[in-house]
Amino acid sequence: KLHSDLDKGVGTVKYTLSGDGAGTVFTIDETTGDIHAIRSLDREEKPFYTLRAQAVDVDTKKPLEPESEFIIKVQDINDNEPKFLDGPYVASVPEMSPVGAYVLQVKATDADDPTYGNSARVVYSILQGQPYFSIDPKTGVIRTALPNMDREVKEQYQVLIQAKDMGGQLGGLAGTTTVNITLTDVNDNPPRFPKSIFHLKVPETSHVGSAIGRIRAVDPDFGKNAEIEYNIVPGDGGNLFDITTDEYTQEGVIKLKKPLDFETKKAYTFKVEASNLHLDHRFHSVGPFKDTATVKINVLDMDEPPVFSKPMYTMEVYEDTPVGTIIGAVTAQDLDAGSSSVRYFIDWKNDVDSYFTIDATEGTIATNELLDRESTAQYNFSIIASKVSNPLLTSKVNVIINVLDVNEFPPEISVPYETSVCENAKPGQVIQIITAADKDLSPAGQRFSFKLSSEASNKPNFTVHDYRNNTAGIETRRNGYSRRQQELYFLPVVIEDSSYPVQSSTNTLTIRVCRCDSDGTIQSCNVEAIFLPVGLSTGALIAILLCIVILLVIVVLYVALRRQKKKDTLMTSKEDIRDNVIHYDDEGGGEEDTQAFDIGALRNPKVIEDNKVRRDIKPDTLRFPRHRPPAEDNTDIRDFINHRLQENDVDPSAPPYDSLATYAYEGNGSVAESLSSIDSLTTEADQDYDYLSDWGPRFKILADMFGEEESYNPDKVT
Q1: If you write DSSP's letter for every residue of 338-356 in order, what string do you get?
Q2: Tell me: the pLDDT tens digits for 166-222?
C-alpha cells in the first residue's frame, strides 16, 4: 500500500505505478494506493520486481511528492520437486565384488530456494533394488550391498532411486530415476565337459588332416574368460590324432594325423583336457580351471583299393637284353575282409612306357624292346593295381628301371692335349697329366690303366707313368731335346678299362719341342725360331724387325718421290704448250697426219673462245672438227695473235708470270725452209718434194709419200 502525507482522504491525490511488471503483473488503486498482483507469481521464474510510484494532484496533474522506488520480493514456497537431469543411468560392476563396491553416483536438482527453509534440501533413497545395492542419502553414491553377486545367476539389475525435498519429511516433493546395473564377467568358472565320454565313428578311408569329430566343454563365463584350449593327454592312440579349438564355437575339433586301417586296429581311446587360457588369480582357490573327458573312436571298415607291398619299386636290367626277359615283379593285395583278386596294368603316359609289359595277373614286368643305356639310362613309370570285384578301386606305385651298361666302348683320352717339352728337360720330368673317359656307364670301382704301345716302348724319348687313379703322367727319358733335330714327337698311349670284356684304345699324343728359360718357362715353340741365332732375346728380334720395316718404308718413299719428280717434269713441259703447239713422240706422218692440229682453228676466233682453257692447268688435247680451211693471207693470223696477246694482258685469271707463245712462225735457218703451208703463198701444186730424197734415210718415208703427185695432199700440216 502506498500513501502520501498530503492525501487528506478527500480524493484530491492520484497514485501512479511504473517499472518492472507494472500493469502486467501488478496494478495500483489510484485513489487508495493499494497494490495488487493480477496473476500468479513464480519465484523460480523471477525472484523480485523493481517498481516506481508517485502521488500527483488530480486537478493539476502535478506531482505532489518526488517519485519513489521500491522492490517487491517473491517469497519461495515448496512448489518444485527434485529432478534427475542425467537420468536414467547405466552402470556396471564386476561380478563377485565385495560389499560396498562403488557402482555410481546420482544427483537430483531442486529449483526451490536453498536459502529459504527446507524446500531445496534433498534426501536419496532406494525404492527398488534392495538388498543388492544401497545408496548414500546425502551424496547419492550407489554401492553393492551383497557379496559374491554372480553374473551367471543374474546379470542385469534395475534400481529405482528417489530424491525427496524438505529433508525427506512428510509433505515434501519427490522425484525418481532408474539405474540399470550390469554385472561384468570375471573368470570365476572353470570349463566343464557335459559328459565324461565322447563316442566317435570314423571311416578308415578318412584323409590325413581331415576333421573327424567335435567335442565341447561348457564355460559359463563370457568373452575371453570363456576361451578354452583343448589338449590330448598322451596315451593310447593319441599320436594318431590332433585337436584344435574352433575360435567361434569354442569346440574341440579332432583331426587325423595318420591314416587309419580297420584291419590293423579297429578302435582308439584317449583323453582330452579342456582348460581356460586367461586365469584370474583371485579365484585360484576355487579349484583347477580345467576338465578332462574320454574320447573313444571306432574305425569303420570300408572297401579299400589294393595295397602294394612297397611304396616304390627299383629294378635293374642290362642293355641289349632280349625282348620278353622278365626283370622283376610288383605285388598288391586286397586287405579287406572279403579279399578280391588284383589285376595289374601300366599307366600309359608316353611312348617310353611301351618299352616294358606287365603280366596282368602275376605282376611280372618284362622288356618289350631292346634297351640302349647310351640313349636312355633310366625309365620311370607307374603301375596301377585294381580289384576284380570293384575295378574303380585302384592304387598306383612308381617303378624305376635302371639300364645297366654293357662294356662296349673303349676308353679314350678325355680332352685333346697340347703337350710340349723343353729343350733343356731332364730325365724323369713330368710334362703332361692325362685322364681318360668312357662312353659306358662306369660302375663303382672301375679303373683305367695307361701304358705305351709296344712299338713306342723301345724308344728312349718318353714313357707313361700310371698313377693308378685313372690318371697318368707323361715323363721324359732323355737329358735334353733339340728342335733342330726333331720338333714333334708322336707318342702312342694304350688305355684299357676294367670292365668285362676289356676294351682298349690307342691314343696318340703330339709332343712339341720348345725353347725354355732356366726356370722351365716356355719362350718359343714356333718353327721359325729354330733358325734364329742363339742368344738373341725377344726384344732384340723386335728391334731388328723394326729396323727392316723402317728401311723398307724409306725405299718406298724414295721411289715414290722419284716418280713424282719425273711426273712433275713432264707436266711442266706439257704446261708450256700453248694452244696449237703439240708435242709428238715420233716423226709423224707428214701432212697426211690427220691427228695433228687443224690450222682452221687458229683462223676461227669463235672456236678458240669456246674451247679456251687456263694456261696454268695442264690442258687436254683439243680435237676440232676436221675441215679444210681456205688459204688466206698471213695478216689474219697476225691480227688474231695480237688480239690474243691483248686478252692475256688484261685477263685476271692468267698466271702472274710472263709467258711466250709462238704462233704460226717456225723461224728461219732451216735448209729446207718451212714445211708448213701456213706461210706458203703458192699452191700445193707448185711445190717440189724431190729434195726429200737428199736428206737421208730418216726422211725416206716422206720422200716416198710425196714423191708421186697423185698422192699429194696440200691440206695437211706436219
Answers
A1: S---EEEEE---SGGGGGE
A2: 877 777 888 999 999 999 888 888 899 999 999 999 998 889 999 999 999 998 888
pLDDT value for 624: 43
Residue 554 pLDDT greater than 90, yes or no: yes
**What does pTM read for this prediction?**
0.41
Compute CA distances 16 → 7, 28, 506, whole Å: 14, 7, 155
The single-letter code of the amino acid at 510 is T
> For residue 539, what pLDDT band results from cuts at 50, 70 and 90?
confident
Q: Mean pLDDT, to the nearest integer, of 630-648? A: 72
From residue 680, alpha-carbon distances to 147, 629, 664, 673, 708 in Å are 169, 14, 11, 11, 20
Instruction: Give me the CATH code for the 197-300 domain, please.
Output: 2.60.40.60
- Bridge-based pairing state of the strands 68-73 and 89-94: unpaired
- In SS3 terms, 467-516 reads as CCCCEEEEEECCCCCCCCCCCEEEEEEEEECCCCCCCEEEEEEEEEEEEE
Q: How many residues does the chain have?
A: 718
- CATH architecture assignment, domain 13-73: Sandwich (2.60)
| CATH class held by domain 83-184 | mainly beta
Cα dihedral sign, 645-650-652-657: positive
Same fold, 13-73 and 307-404: yes
- Contact (CB, 8 A) for 159 and 129: yes
Closest CA to 120 of 79, 88, 153, 148: 79
Q: What is the mean pLDDT of residues 509-534?
A: 73
Compute the distance between CA of residue 207 and CA of residue 462 in angstroms, rounded to an integer: 73
Q: Are 231 and 271 in contact (CB under 8 A)?
A: no
Is the distance from CB of 289 to CB of 276 less than 8 angstroms?
A: yes
Helix (H, G, I), strand (E, B) or coil at 318: strand
Q: What residue ranges do the domains of the chain occupy?
A: 13-73, 83-184, 197-300, 307-404, 412-524
Q: What is the CATH number of domain 412-524?
A: 2.60.40.60
- What one-letter code names the amino acid at 641? I
- Strands 488-496 and 471-476: what pairing? unpaired
Q: Which residues pair with 409 in a beta bridge?
A: none
* b/e sequence 30-46, b meaning 16+ C-beta within 10 Å: beebebeeeeeeebeee
Collapsing DSSP to helix, strand or coil, 80 comes out as coil
Query: Contact at 8 Å (CB) between 412 and 437?
Result: yes
Q: Please say whether the beta carbons of 256 and 208 come within 8 A.
A: yes
Architecture of domain 307-404: Sandwich (2.60)
Distance CA 210, CA 230 (A): 17
